[in-house]
Amino acid sequence: MSDRKFKKLEYKHKGITWTTYPEVCKSCGLCIEKCPVKCLSFDDANTEYLELPAVKCDIEKCIACKTCELSCPDAAIRVEGKR
Ligand code: SF4
Ligand code: SF4
User: Fold this and answer.
1) How many helices (H) and strands (E) does the chain have?
2) How far apart are CA 3 and CA 27, in angstroms?
């Protein structure tokens, strides 16, 4: 197993940590489409993979349902904590 560490971006609010790995995200938009509170969007400032935007989180709206984590085909999101 590789011990390579991927760059990660964390958003934190009230015990919830939402993390994405922009080098892994292929910008498919599935997480954005599935989020029930619509707090995800493309992050044009982060284009680590094929010059496509990664995803950012409006963490104050996140309900930590983990739908995004479970939907991502590339395991580019991790959600910890609960509301
Ligand atoms: S955990 Fe749920 S509410 Fe939070 S960003 Fe993911 S899908 Fe949206
Ligand atoms: S589902 Fe995963 S790969 Fe697709 S945009 Fe979201 S974080 Fe990126």
Assistant:
1) 2, 5
2) 24
> Is residue 76 in contact with ligand 1, taking CB distance under 6 Å?
no
In a domain, 3, yes or no: no
- Any ligand 1 atom below 6 A from CB of 79: yes
Ligand 2 centre to CA of 1 (Å) is 23
52-83 per-position pLDDT tens digit = 999 999 999 999 999 999 999 999 999 999 87
Q: Residue 68: CB within 6 Å of ligand 1?
A: yes
- The reported pTM is 0.93
Domain span at residue 41 reads: 9-80
